[in-house]
Known about the structure:
Layout: H1 3-22, H2 31-79, E1 89-94, E2 100-105, E3 112-120, E4 124-128, E5 145-151, E6 161-165, H3 170-178, E7 184-190, E8 198-206, E9 212-218, E10 237-241, H4 244-248, E11 255-260, E12 263-268, E13 270-271, E14 282-283, H5 291-303, E15 309-317, E16 320-328, E17 339-342, E18 345-347, E19 350-353, E20 360-362, E21 367-371, E22 374-378, E23 382-383, E24 390-394, E25 407-414, H6 416-439, H7 458-473, E26 499-501, E27 507-509, H8 511-530, H9 546-558, H10 563-640
Antiparallel strand pairs: 1-25, 2-24, 3-21, 3-25, 4-8, 4-20, 5-6, 5-9, 7-8, 10-16, 10-19, 11-12, 11-17, 13-14, 15-16, 17-18, 21-22, 23-24, 26-27
Amino acid sequence: xxxxxxxxxxxxxxxxxxxxxxxxxxxxxxxxxxxxxxxxxxxxxxxxxxxxxxxxxxxxxxxxxxxxxxxxxxxxxxxxxxxxxxxxxxxxxxxxxxxxxxxxxxxxxxxxxxxxxxxxxxxxxxxxxxxxxxxxxxxxxxxxxxxxxxxxxxxxxxxxxxxxxxxxxxxxxxxxxxxxxxxxxxxxxxxxxxxxxxxxxxxxxxxxxxxxxxxxxxxxxxxxxxxxxxxxxxxxxxxxxxxxxxxxxxxxxxxxxxxxxxxxxxxxxxxxxxxxxxxxxxxxxxxxxxxxxxxxxxxxxxxxxxxxxxxxxxxxxxxxxxxxxxxxxxxxxxxxxxxxxxxxxxxxxxxxxxxxxxxxxxxxxxxxxxxxxxxxxxxxxxxxxxxxxxxxxxxxxxxxxxxxxxxxxxxxxxxxxxxxxxxxxxxxxxxxxxxxxxxxxxxxxxxxxxxxxxxxxxxxxxxxxxxxxxxxxxxxxxxxxxxxxxxxxxxxxxxxxxxxxxxxxxxxxxxxxxxxxxxxxxxxxxxxxxxxxxxxxxxxxxxxxxxxxxxxxxxxxxxxxxxxxxxxxxxxxxxxxxxxxxxxxxxxxxxxxxxxxxxxxxxxxxxxxxxxxxxxxxxxxxxxxxxxxxxxxxxxxxxxx
Length: 641
């Protein structure tokens, strides 16, 4: 018979028996309850034991998580003491922070005062292109071309970089330059000027060695554009013709003027020549080549506030022109030419050389400072190799033509942060120790469900406590096991800075002892804890100091193949096994229940059959009794008659 047929037959029998029981047939006993009760008598103790094991295992898993977390907190406390630059908090001050200051300090920064004079600042070269009407204006007739970029002192590089510009527009040039790492960045700037108002701005890295120059070359023999990056600029020059007769024949009130905008320089040409009252006034100068006249013109420019031009004598033979040349003091196009008069009449001012704007807006240069009297040059304005543990930033020139104006920078050290870290470490360890005591306790606490969670794994608890206790009480020996100690004779371990362990396994902190140790042996404390290292690789075989040694032990306890993760994995496996065991128990005792029910159902069927026989016999006996009673009555009646 198939399993389905058997289950169907059993279900039908059970249903029939339920009907019989409901109708009061059979024995009248609730065989379902009796079957379940008899099954539970056997099953429940075993089920409860398995559930207790599951609950205990789940508590263990939670406990391992709590221990791992607390060890992680403790590890962070020790890692806060493993770098030399974290042992103290240094502060700095500056008498002129706008010009120079320490922008960054760590705990190793050398305490002291320093005098800094800023002579020049480091700059990156900035160069602009010619102007374009739009971002998409065609360059080179739309034909592709190459940009040749050279970097180095004076923009000279033995290995220039070639940058292909496939889209010959201002935006295309910018995109091509920024697509690679060429040491130069490009931006397209709208100057706001009507018409040709777009320029490409190239910016290089600061430092004289990072100067650059830009040229172009053709692609496959095509055209080559001039982008204007190489324009060095030209100062405008103007010539004012000045004949000798106008000078030597000067009459009373005759003057020479030179006007720039609203400013006019005036030179008197006739007057008292020898300061002799008996001598008539006369021309003051002998000709255009009279040095006294040139000096007078220069002085007049200065007096009028005309700084845009300088004056010099000028002579030319083809054609013959004698006079004075005025040269612009800055390179660039002149929008309004100067004017001049001689003897009150305007003279022609001739443009000798047109001014051309220089496209290099800023030249690459190094910074130069004096540091405690020593001249220092760097490619940047951020200098990190003058004072160990400190970064010097310079932002403004302090030296003038009259004085050096040094800035006084000072560094002071505050060791209070170390004390706070040690106190935090002690507190974190004691929290851990309290947790471990609760987890392995034999007591129970309805308000603390984790109480005693690891009492069944006390070996793991003792192992972790032993490993950590040994690490904390150890001396800061060399990592390579050599006999040469890392520590000084007065500072060997945590106990020498006031940290000790009491009889309950808790750490205590003696503040007085710590204060004395820091006052007299701070450098030794730093060495003991950090081995005078900062950000040292954990894979290095060199000494890392006591703090990192302890942190490494803690890491070993919590890593993937450490004791905690191993015990946690075992507990997870055990929990799964208990769950399987519970399911198997349920299946097994469900079969027991069905067996009891089948047996009681058979009994009920037998009782029902016996009840039927009983009722039949009772009917027969009742009929027989009635028949006998009739015969007796009949006989009695007959005897009476």
